[in-house]
Amino acid sequence: MNVSPALKSLACDHDHYAKTFNIFLKCSQEHECMVEFFDKELADILARIGNGKSSMNVLGVGSGPGEMDLHMLRKIQEKHPEVHIMNDVVDPSSDHIGKYKELVSKSQNLENVSFNWNQMSSQEYEQQMKEKNDNKKWDFIHMIQVLYYIQNLEETLTFFLKHLEQNGRMLLILISGNSGWASIDKKYGTCLPLHNDTCAVISSHFIKDIIQKMGIKCQHYDLPSVIDITTCFNEDSEEGTLLLDFVTQTLNFSKSAPPSLKAEIMKYLRGPECSTVKDEKIMFNNNSGAVVIEP
To answer: Taking 80 as the threshold, does the pLDDT of residue 154 lie above it?
Structure first.
């Protein structure tokens, strides 16, 4: 079955994406599992960057509302308390940039951090740097749940690796190959707008293989988590409707999907390939994977 012309990728509408993403964060454990990884694993990795410099450059691509960015900046501050941090933020969503700025304004102990805001996509930022012949390098680059929206993965990874300091590190976080997302892609990847000019469903294990084939050293970490998708099965729930858009990565899925396809996907979402049922709640497998590149 081919993708119905009525189904549009969620990535086509940045504002609607931001709304669905906020619901996703509310219903998922994703940030909790990332924070645990930052505290237990990433902190020691960040301790090894910088080469004793008085200042460091950090780049966040697809930073979202900023909660995870600030947590990582705190870790750099803990490991390098005397260092000034220049933090470059790249995100195409005005909603995300606005929330990030608001979060910074309310946060304490950021006196040694400067922020440079770039409301644009990763590709636009990359093109801007090329046009300006900008040779800036970063000590730490992170791209969290963003590589799905990159058209030429190897070219983009090569570009940013070229701008990584000699002792720098790059962090990539994506869905795991054993997640519910991967199951949906395997079963319905040809029916939903999961692979097109704006996005593609790829896993952390897939990215790890690409990086290793490039001859670059990297380490993979598992980040287990779930999403409570119970409200997706309540047609009167606005929150559930938005969450369903995010889970299917489809703009207005409930209204635009052909009825037979919608019924089939809803049944699959609550099945064992994607979810478990606990205390009458449907918990979607949201496992992710972190890939740390150490050139």
So the answer is: yes
Q: How far apart are CA 122 and CA 139, in angstroms?
A: 18
Contact 168, 139 (CB under 8 A): yes
Interval 144-152 mean pLDDT: 90
- Write the DSSP symbol of residue 92: S
pLDDT score of 1 more than 70: no
**Category of 221 on φ-ψ map: left (φ > 0), alpha (ψ -120 to 50) or beta:** beta
Q: What share of the chain is helix, strand, coil (3-state, %, to 5)?
A: 45, 25, 30
What the block records as the tokens of 287 is 């496992």
Residue 241 in this model has a pLDDT that exceeds 80: yes
140 close to 43: Cβ distance less than 8 angstroms: no
**If pLDDT is split at 50, 70 and 90, which confidence band does 2 have?**
low
Nearest alpha-carbon partner for 63 in 115, 128, 135, 137: 115
> Contacts by 204-207 with C-beta closer than 8 Å and gap 24+?
204/172, 204/173, 204/174, 204/175, 204/176, 204/177, 204/288, 204/289, 204/290, 204/291, 205/176, 205/177, 205/289, 206/174, 206/177, 207/147, 207/153, 207/172, 207/174, 207/291
Instruction: Tell me the one-letter amino acid at 284.
Output: F
Give the number of other CB atoms < 10 A from CB of residue 86.
16
114: left (phi over 0), alpha (psi -120 to 50) or beta: beta
Q: Are 53 and 96 in contact (CB under 8 A)?
A: no
